[in-house]
Amino acid sequence: MPINVSKELPASDSLKLEKIFVMDEDRARTQDIRPLNILILNLMPEKEKTELQLLRLLGNTPLQVNISFLRTKSHRSKHVSRHHLENFYTTFEHVKNRRYDGLIITGAPIEHLDFQDVNYWNELTEIMDWASDNVTSTLHICWGAQAALYHHYGIEKFAMPKKSFGIFKHQISDPTVKLVRGFDEIFHAPHSRYTNISKEAVENNADLTLLSVSEEDAPFIIMSNDAKNIMITGHLEYDATTLAEEYRRDIGRGVEIDIPVNYFPDNDVNQRPPNIWRSHSHLLFSNWLNYYVYQQTPFEWE
């Protein structure tokens, strides 16, 4: 079934070329079913790339999904046009009186900052608090996951000696949990971050369940016991070439950085890396939409 987005959104054409089922608003209004309403708070600088990555995953389920994009009012992105933001994004003041079936909060390349030093931190915490009462389930990605763990559960992030950068193996702790239903016991996922969270802090929090750890013994998939908050510390949504683009960007800026581990064939940066995490990316988003949004959200919000 399709995702419902504006037919003017640039990602729409790319999705159609990839045979992702996209429905425009006019056709969606003629269907006598209740679509899911998903809000995406996109904190990534290159917003159009992130839009395409997330829509590709949200469009691969038997559910009709209405997508709305949210941006922070207190921060002006430098890597996307004002025209794009004004046409396809809204701000919190325009959605705070609505209810949504699901919310996605993306990562952001600001992990070197203390949370309180982020210029939109107060706005973000207001959104996260609002989501607790007005969203059925929220999916937090990378820095967004660390922000949620700190704000809701008091778990601090800490700096690592060097960047966790590459494709890592992960293990599932309980394959019977619906979020990871169908996962292999060992699967791969991309990471790109300078900070981490304590595995012990997650395990010792009575409100959280640790579902997956990386081969570095770092928490990867974390879920609150009420399933209102799901935290993914890596980037399952990444394209095959995203880490390569980040690597070349950092090299061009003079940043000392290692080649992403387990990524380029034969560690040859001139070879195109294969995507070996795509199936689990689709599976995680599909499980989240089905079991924690569609199966839980009311048909009519009171």
Features:
302 residues, alpha/beta, Rossmann fold, 29% helix, globular
What is the average of the pLDDT values? 91
User: What is the CA–CA distance across the termini?
Assistant: 26 Å
Shape: globular
Order of helices and strands: EHEHEHEHEEHEHEEHEEEHH
Number of helices: 9
Structure description:
The structure is a single chain. Helix 1 packs across helix 3. The chain has a single domain, classed as Class I glutamine amidotransferase (GATase) domain (Rossmann fold), CATH 3.40.50.880. Helices cover 29% and strands 25% of the residues. The chain has 9 helices and 12 strands. Strands 1, 2, 3, 4, 5, 6, 7, 8, 9, 10, 11 and 12 form a 12-stranded mixed sheet that branches. The protein is globular. The chain is an alpha/beta fold and 302 residues long. It has helices spanning 10-17, 25-28, 47-58, 82-88, 121-134, 143-153, 199-203, 242-252, 278-294; strands at residues 3-4, 22-23, 36-41, 65-70, 89-90, 100-105, 135-141, 157-172, 186-197, 208-214, 219-224, 229-232.
